[in-house]
Specification:
This protein is mainly α. The protein has a single domain, classed as MetI-like (MetI-like fold). Helix content is 84%, strand content 0%. α1 packs parallel to α4, α4 runs antiparallel to α6 and α7 runs antiparallel to α8. The radius of gyration is 19 Å and the shape is elongated.
Length: 194
Amino acid sequence: MANLLDHADGFGLGVAVGLVLGFIIGSSRFLYNACYPLLVGFNAIPKVAFVPILVVWFGIGSVPAILTAFLICFFPIVVNVATGLATLEPEMEDVLRVLGARRMDVLLKVGLPRSLPYFFASLKIAITLAFVGTVVSETVASNQGIGYLMMSAGSQMRMGLVFAGLLVISAMAMVMYELFAQLEKRMTAWAHRS
């Protein structure tokens, strides 16, 4: 149960920060061009390398697992939301500006709805990555959760329990992926061919 809560906390934090950063970066061409390479560079760092640092700062337990899940899943959300906003057609923006819309109106009323398919694509990626982050952290620096259970079982040569942990993680990831896929169908049906 701790694994699912850590995963949910890390994922929720990743979504919140990713949405805000994605909106800020995507709303400005300058910020998009300046921040995108930095985000790519940050994403290239193996997140497992952060776990020992997080353990030193926050101790063994849930906090490193939550922060690892956050670090691993916020990147696709930021990139997709920013891309959805940054790729708004200039012609559409020009027409709306001529009709009296301010830049913020264009972003909120056209840009954000238009970036919803990008956002849901990133949610489906991030939800599975958050499981990876949580389990990696739990195998390295925790005394609870599925990652810890699998590590402990592996050291005792109880491979059945290790495989059971893998199956539970896979099942949880598939359920969460399908939940977001269904939510995407309901909220962005206009963006998909029937």
